[in-house]
Amino acid sequence: MINPRTTAIIAIDLHRGHLDPNVATMPVPIEEGRRVLENTKKLFALARKYGIPIIHVIMQIRQISDNLTEASINPFWNAVENARESLTPHRQSQIFKHNILGSIQAEIMPEVAPQKGDYIVSNKKRLSAFYGTDLEVLLRALKVDTLIIVGVNTNTCVLCTAFEAFNRDFKVVVISDCVASMYGEDLHEFALQNVSRCLGWVLSLQELEDKIKEAL
């Protein structure tokens, strides 16, 4: 059972930087992006039906100078860019241009845009939705104990957030229909297995609705 009164949705990085093929700097495969958007739109409708709060968490990176951003100080990201490698198999990635504050890439996709009553955490800088943000303060204020985590990327930001939620003693649920990875299907599947075997529950959208109905 999932009690909607003590549950919140954490929607991670559903922005143009990953999901809009026309401007994405770190794109997921187009078909995967469409799948995530279509199913997350259904998830949000379900959440609003049952009064589950939706929290949008977005990475936004400050441009410090012409050659320096808050991302370029990370040694691994810096090494990847300097070597002109790509994080996205068979596609181009641009770490230092990804989700610069005020850029089009940092905009949430219109299909899943925040509505009245939603919450936005817009100062995520790394892979965790908790690190350096006020997400935990908001969750404690909402008095929730269960987190439904969706978004991009399954094996980085979703997985890292699942670990940190687990460490804070939240119940962790990841909706398999609503996550995808730019890093490849193998790491997407690995992350779902890691959650289900170590951290919490992996459910389909239909399974989630069934478990909500069980609690009512």
Secondary-structure content class: alpha/beta
Predict the CATH topology.
Rossmann fold
Count of distinct strands: 8
Report the sheet with the most strands, covering strand number, pairing sense and barrel closure: 6 strands, parallel
Distance between the amino and carboxyl termini: 9 Å
Q: From the alpha-carbon coordinates, what is the Rg to the nearest angstrom?
A: 17 Å
Number of domains: 1
**What is the residue-mean pLDDT, rounded to a whole number?**
97
Low-confidence stretches: none
Q: CATH-wise, what's the superfamily? A: Isochorismatase-like
Just name the CATH architecture: 3-Layer(aba) Sandwich
Number of helices: 7
CATH level 1 name:
Alpha Beta
- Give the oligomeric state: single chain
Question: How much strand content do the residues show?
Answer: 15-25%
> What order do the SSEs take from the amino end to the carboxyl end, as H and E?
EHHEEEHEHEHEHEH
How does the overall form come out from the CA principal axes?
globular
Concise description?
The chain is built from seven helices and eight strands, in the order E-H-H-E-E-E-H-E-H-E-H-E-H-E-H. With 216 residues, the chain is an alpha/beta fold. The protein has one domain: Rossmann fold (3-Layer(aba) Sandwich).
